[in-house]
Amino acid sequence: MPGEFDLIRRRFTRSVTHTDLGVGDDGALFTPRAGMQMVVSTDMLVSGTHFFADVAPELLGWKAAAVNISDMAAMGAEPRWMLLALSLPHLRDEWVAAMASGFHGCCAGFGVDWVGGDTTRGPLNLCPTIIGEVPHGQAIVRSGARAGDDIWVSGVPGLAALGLRALRDDLPLADDWRERCVGALHKPTPRVALGVGLRGLATAALDVSDGLCGDLMHILERSNVAAVLSDVEWPLQPLIAACGDALLARRTFLAGGDDYELLFTAPAHRRAEVEALSLRLALPLARIGAIEAGSPHIELLLDDGSRLPMNTRGFDHFS
Ligand code: ADP
Ligand code: MG
Q1: Residues whose CB falls within 8 Å of the CB of residue 309, separated by 6 or more in sequence, listed in order
Q2: Of the candidates 150, 217, 191, 212, which has an alpha carbon nearest to the alpha carbon of residue 283?
Q3: How far is 156 from 247, CA to CA, in rounded Å?
Q4: 23 lines ligand 1 (CB under 6 A)
Q5: Among 1, 5, 30, 119, which residue has the most ligand 1 atoms within 8 Å of its CB, making it the best to mutate?
Q6: Whose C-alpha lies nearest to ligand 1, atom 1?
Q7: How do residues 268-305 score in pLDDT, each as one tens digit?
Q8: What is the average pLDDT score of the chain?
Q9: What DSSP character marks residue 244?
Q10: Complete domains list, the chain, with CATH
Q11: In the chain, which ranges are continuous DSSP H helix?
């Protein structure tokens, strides 16, 4: 069906700002800036696993772009170019137009050129590839956490998981909060400015996609260190306000996925710099624990000074 595919391709042909040759040829051409290292990543969204098949296409397009841009944020990189490999059960122009508009809107909002992709018939599946740039040697990787570092997280991890439960399990949420939680699920904000601001300051970082504890374990394993969490500064108030259940709020904070907040470590003596960055970006950053020497595991520090081993499993697609 070349006609229909042609139509789709036209939907995907958008103006570009820093690309030599975009959609329309066998490949795209672009020129990395001098002194930059390129960062590339891909993150797939599968119908029924990562989203409901009947989700609004504009939101789906946004989210597919956002979760990929978020991987650049987690590396301290600027997102620059995006491709979208797409499999669709049927070609509905209206659906494709709305999805493309959400996808392109997110790309454009973060300075990303949409430069190509692939389109095929099959089960609904979106697989973007993102390419970013970071000054040579300045990428923030997962392996740099050291004993004595603080552990920080941006925003309020858990809102998206409450949104998911509101939709899937009919978990009742306070009215104004329902919108915010479902919004966090459908329209996550990649923390690009935070990632860039953390270059040279964070010792390790990642974006929280599967749950805070499970994702923290990735840093601990790559850095070969342990973590002790203390709940004093956890941003639980919004979660409690949303669901009215303090225990559920804590569980959701620790294990809920899909918020795409940044979890990072930074030396304790640079705490004031992290706080200044939070102010400059008007983005709450919460100090949720500390890195210790030891084999990779997480403990929770209780009020009486005792320690509780934490269940470190976040949301695992194969469990
Ligand atoms: P080829 O025959 O070389 O595989 P295609 O016919 O698949 O090329 O694609 C032609 C052009 O349309 C290419 O530039 C490709 O990048 C673009 N394109 C196809 N699908 C998408 C998509 N989902 N998003 C962006 N560009 C796309
Ligand atoms: Mg070709």
Answers
A1: 297, 298, 299, 300
A2: 191
A3: 16
A4: yes
A5: 119
A6: 26
A7: 999 999 999 999 999 999 999 999 999 999 999 998 99
A8: 94
A9: S
A10: 4-135 (3.30.1330.10), 142-309 (3.90.650.10)
A11: 2-11, 57-74, 93-109, 159-168, 175-186, 192-197, 212-223, 237-243, 246-255, 271-281
